[in-house]
Amino acid sequence: MIFWRVKPLDQILENAEKKSLKRQLGALQLTMLGIGAIIGTGIFVLTAEAAQKAGPGMMVAFVIAAVVCGLAALAYAELASMVPVSGSAYTYTYAVLGEALAWIVGWALVLEYAVAAGAVAVGWSGYVNGLMNAANMGLPAFLQTGPYDGGGFNLLACLISLVITGLLVIGTSKSAWVNAVLVTIKIAALIAFVVIAVPAAKAPNFEPFLPTGWGTPMGGIGVLGAAASIFFAYVGFDAVSTAAEETKNPNRNIPIGLIGSLAVCTVFYLLVGYGAVGADGAQPMYDAAGTLLEPGSEALAAACANSSMLVCSKEPLAHVLRSLDHNTVAYLVGMAASLALPSVILMMIYGQTRIFFVMSRDGLLPAVCSKVHPTFHTPHIITMLTGVVVSLFAAMFPVGILADVSNSGTLFAFIMVAIGVMILRRTQPGRARPFRTPLVWLVCPLAVAGCVLLFVNLSAKALTVFAVWSVIGLALYAAYGMRNSELARRQ
Predict the structure, then answer these.
(1) How far apart are CA 491 and CA 483, in angstroms?
(2) 229-233, 344-348, 476-480: which has the minimum mean pLDDT?
(3) Does the keyword tRNA-binding apply (predicted)?
(4) Cα Rg of the chain (Å, integer)
(5) What is the mean pLDDT of the chain?
(6) pLDDT score for 96
(7) How far apart are CA 485 and CA 99, in angstroms?
(8) Whole-prediction pTM
């Protein structure tokens, strides 16, 4: 072990049975949950962000991010099938690398899930505000965006986060079926976009293909910077693993949900990205001195005030369709995004609460965080607390900043999972593995390398937030978790 106090896999499984959640989700529901978590703000909104960072080169960024996520998914599938317990990367790290690293991973996952939920809520509000503005029913500009994006308080993003929280308190099964309907709407919207935009693609719109180059570490721009951001568009498949304790036959169904949802979304993303670039162009904006404007900055917001470029749109897919004179379909796609993006918020908040639930059960967080409602059978207290925090994130920050910060925690967790798979192959080669990562000594090192590559190409702001967040987490662990964990009490 790297730090101390490793929790054996058998003990993790035993504890899960003592204080468990009701198993009620099947393979189809899990796959739909995965698709619901993946297809969202990343493709509906961050397409414009990626275009500002890489121009048409964002097509390559989509491929890079998909490859890295695919490698990580194979590692996740093996551990999720071996340890069908809520907690995702936190639980797996606890079993392999020890309690201290597990805490760091669990703390980092707050960036992945809670911050990501806020980012999606901001993306959703962009589409809804667009629809309301078109109908001359728009909110005051102050209430349409947060203070870093030219406004003051993103009211709609705050409200949708609270509504989703209420739905999750009511019950998981109900949430899953609502999610299935919303996923269907999202897929229909993307199919409509692909059918119209892909045939309209023109070769000149892809030139220059790499206007900002490949990028530099901590620069947050170029193809690698765009890949580090667009990685957010694929994140969510691992949220399937957080539902392990609520899954029927998890050894079979968890791998199906993980890999199946990622495969479906990758195909859609490549087609949508090609259609957006080819039909409308995706060149970035520069200031008067020829310097690339930073995505999510006040300077870009000011430059975009009177611009109709794709990189300026808060609703890029609807924007592309309007540029092709398909106004009715653009309206319908905007409506679909408005109806369907909440499913991603749902899955992100869901994943966050289940991780807190397991950390509380392990004694690293107060016991109240794992209290289950007697009627709804959900961890209602931590769900409500998480929802309030997410609503505040969404109200104050722009989508690009939230997405990059979220990715920092996600990439760190993925690295730990891939390392964990390799260690268990050496230390416990005889343990049952219902799903085995193929070519593990190639796949897992490549997954680690890919995640590190994207991590160092995040913006300096995102990496700074990650460092500060980690220090705060370690301080909390030293003050509470180190002394109150279940393993500490047994010693």
Answers:
(1) 10
(2) 344-348
(3) no
(4) 21
(5) 81
(6) 78
(7) 9
(8) 0.80
pLDDT tens, 136-164? 888 888 888 888 777 788 999 999 999 98
**Can you read off the two tokens belonging to residue 230?**
């667009």
Give the three-class secondary structure for 461: helix
Residues 330, 336, 338, 340: is their CA dihedral positive or negative? negative
> E strand or H helix at 441, and its extent?
helix 440-456
Tell me whether residue 366 is in a domain.
Answer: yes
Q: Between residues 397 and 56, which one has the greater pLDDT?
A: 56
**Residue 1 belongs to some domain of the structure:** no
Contact call for residues 69 and 235 (beta carbons, < 8 A):
yes
Nearest to 270 by CA among 169, 168, 201: 201
Other C-beta atoms within 10 Å of 265: how many?
A: 26
Question: What number of CA atoms fall less than 13 Å from residue 434's CA on the CB side?
Answer: 16
What is the predicted pLDDT for the residue at 300? Answer: 78
* 1 has pLDDT over 50: no
> Pick from 293, 290, 295: which is nearest to 314 by CA?
295
Domain span at 282: 9-19+30-490
Q: CB of 354 within 8 A of CB of 81?
A: no
- Who contacts 184 (Cβ-Cβ below 8 Å, separation ≥6)? none
**pLDDT of 209 higher than 60:** yes
Instruction: Report the Cα 338 to chain-centroid distance in Å.
Output: 18
**Angstrom distance (rounded) from CA 470 to CA 282:** 36
CB contact at 8 A, 461 and 397: no
Structural domain contains residue 471: yes
10 contacts: CB under 8 Å, gap ≥ 6? none
Q: What DSSP state is assigned to residue 281?
A: -
Q: pLDDT digits over 348-388, tens only?
A: 788 788 788 888 888 888 888 778 877 777 788 888 888 89
Structural domains in the chain (count): 1
- Reduced to 3 states (helix: H, G, I; strand: E, B; else coil), residue 247 is strand
Phi first, then psi, for residue 286 (nearest 5°) are: -125, 160
CA count, 13 A, side-chain hemisphere, 91: 32
Q: Kindly report the number of other CB atoms within 10 A of residue 135's CB atom.
A: 9
Amino acid at 352: Q
Q: HSE of 184 in the Cβ direction (CA atoms, 13 Å)?
A: 8
Looking at the domain assignment, is residue 273 inside a domain?
yes
> Which is more confident, 76 or 219?
76
For residue 85, the domain's CATH number is 1.20.1740.10
The helix/strand/coil state of 282 is coil
242: which residues sit within 8 A by CB, 6+ positions away?
A: 86, 87, 88, 350, 351, 354, 355
User: What are the tens digits of pLDDT across the range 43-89?
Assistant: 777 788 888 888 898 889 988 998 898 888 888 878 877 776 656 67
